[in-house]
Amino acid sequence: MGYEHRPAAAWMNIGGSRRRRSFLFAVATIAAFCFILKLAPITQDKWRQYSYRAYPTPFKTIPDNSPRLTIDDFLSPNHTLSRTLNTTTQNFGPDYIFLHKLGRGYEGQADIYHHVPSNTAVVIKTFFSMTRDQQIPSSVLALLEKDNITLSRWPVDLSATLRRYTGSDSTYRFSISETDDEDNEAEASNTNAPLTNPEDGTIHPLDLFHVPNTPPQTHPWRMVLPLYPGSLDSVASTTAFLNLTTADLDFLYRPRFSAVFRTLGQMHQTTEYTGSLSASDITINGFCHDDVKLDNIFLKNGQHELLVGDMGQVRSLGHDWHKSNKWECRLIDAHRGWRSYLTLLREGSMGAEVSAGKGARFDKGEDSSAWGAQGTFSRDLMEGKVEWAKAYWSWTVWKTLPQDFPEGGWWDEVPEGVVMMPTPKGPVRMGREEAIRFIEGVRMELGEYKTAVKAGVSLEKPWWWWEVKENALPEEVERELKVINGAVLVGM
Ligand SMILES: *[C@@H]1O[C@H](CO)[C@@H](O)[C@H](O)[C@H]1NC(C)=O
Ligand SMILES: *[C@@H]1O[C@H](CO)[C@@H](O)[C@H](O)[C@H]1NC(C)=O
Ligand SMILES: *[C@@H]1O[C@H](CO)[C@@H](O)[C@H](O)[C@H]1NC(C)=O
Ligand SMILES: *[C@@H]1O[C@H](CO)[C@@H](O)[C@H](O)[C@H]1NC(C)=O
Fold first, then answer.
1. What ranges does the record give for the region Disordered, renumbered to this chain (predicted)?
2. Of 103, 174, 326, 465, which residue has the fewest beta carbons closer than 10 angstroms?
3. Angle at 159 between CA 154 and CA 162, to 5 degrees
4. Which residues pair with 421 in a beta bridge?
5. DSSP label at 3?
6. How far apart are CA 347 and CA 362, in angstroms?
7. What is the DSSP string of 410-447?
């Protein structure tokens, strides 16, 4: 067991690309594709009309209140446990009508379906057999046995996504077991303790069902998720076109990103009663996400509120994997959170760097004044003078766990201000909410533009388009941002 054998990550990890394309950026792109295909035979005029629509740009969103499948729903007799795949149409009964393939990665694939009862588009995840799996919780086994289904394992992602990470008083009946190979019979606990925070900051499933005639090499389970608008890396690639600086991005996204640490803190403190008779392991004292990165931070809505997703690597704090690596996994999660934020600032400000003619070079010997007024990420990070860099370096000294981030501290500070946003009519001063709405409009256009280009539709470039070229990262910066080997970086 180790990173070599199970690349953290998974969904779109198809070799070759510099960085993994986000699973849900693809979602947005496909949604855009549907938009293009469905709404009209596309013409240049139509496109221009859409692309140059009045500012502020409208944005698409999913309802905040989409229902969450809970464990109790899943175990309820009302829940449809099995759905047969029609191998011709790819439909699951009358309820889930196949629309489009979405993406395929190392551990599984995702497709877009029309959910007929709710008349919404949803994502259905399929898991390949090499995905990380575990013993099926025995409450589910009992259900399966009633239907003469003999299965023993299912993907960890299912247990980990179904559960809520609501802090110390939560109870749970599906264990994310101590080790992958151990069934710790966790379903015994059901004290129905009230949830302190039912919105736990993670993505949630809409449905989960067994597929008796699944294709070979896939787990006979499907998880249905809302069609989220995208993931955070798609925001970074959008703001680069708008020449926003690291300071702009920090101003806009710090209040959003603090939710990621809040969620991690909650996961870390969510205990799970294992139902074991041995007093020593009555509870599991918290969980680590173990795969925090931009691609796994999803946009909840067009206002870019954030959710933590892709739970396939979630492990309990005391998991053997952490022990064998001597990892304080909560610090690893926190450090990955920081590095994701730094990556957002870096990638999102690439346009400003290139535009200022400085690139992402960083030469230690160089007089920093030579970098000009426009800040560059690498210089700012290594000099540690700007606010976000100071906050980061100070975290690497104190190594505070997310649950101990001080209330009203740096992550909670919401500085007032405006950004100068380029618009078709020239720069416009915008407050945070307005700016994010605007960025969302451009993000949608970017997805649509890329999709149209890929589909061979020749289009005039959108007004904001220019050739943003990525510069090579200085070695010391690359080391700082690297997501693997967190243990070394936090000094353990
Ligand atoms: C199952 O459905 C029935 C009828 O729709 C409803 O009255 C009942 O509360 C449901 N049971 C559960 C556990 O959801
Ligand atoms: C699959 O769907 C097709 C088209 O609707 C239908 O003709 C066929 O009977 C279905 N196959 C099964 C096994 O239900
Ligand atoms: C399960 O198998 C038993 C014995 O073969 C049979 O009597 C029963 O009807 C089956 N149940 C289902 C739901 O197929
Ligand atoms: C960003 O800067 C580049 C290079 O200076 C420029 O070509 C482009 O028009 C700018 N983008 C916007 C949206 O102002």
1. 176-204
2. 326
3. 135
4. 428
5. T
6. 15
7. TTT------EEE--TTS-EEE-HHHHHHHHHHHHHHHH
- In which residue ranges of the chain is pLDDT below 50? 1-63, 169-171, 177-196, 276-281, 360-374, 485-492
| 253 vs 259: CA distance, rounded Å | 10
Cβ density class 153-181: b for 16+ within 10 Å, e for less: ebbbbbbbbbbbbbbeebbbbbbbbbbbe
Q: Evaluate: CB of 150 within 6 angstroms of ligand 3.
A: no
pLDDT at residue 216, as a whole number: 92
Distance between CA atoms of 294 and 246, rounded to whole angstroms? 16
pLDDT for 65 equals 54
What pTM was computed for the model? 0.82
For residue 51, which amino acid is it?
A: S
Residues composing the chain: 492
In 89-199, where does DSSP find H-type helix?
Answer: 138-146, 156-162
Query: Which atom of ligand 1 is the closest one to the Cα of 73?
Result: 14
pLDDT recorded at residue 198: 57
Q: Which ligand is nearest to the CA of 143?
A: 3
In eight-state DSSP terms, residue 82 is: B
Q: Whose CA is nearest to atom 7 of ligand 1?
A: 78
Tokens 């009633």 locate to 146
CA of 92 to the centre of ligand 2 (A): 11
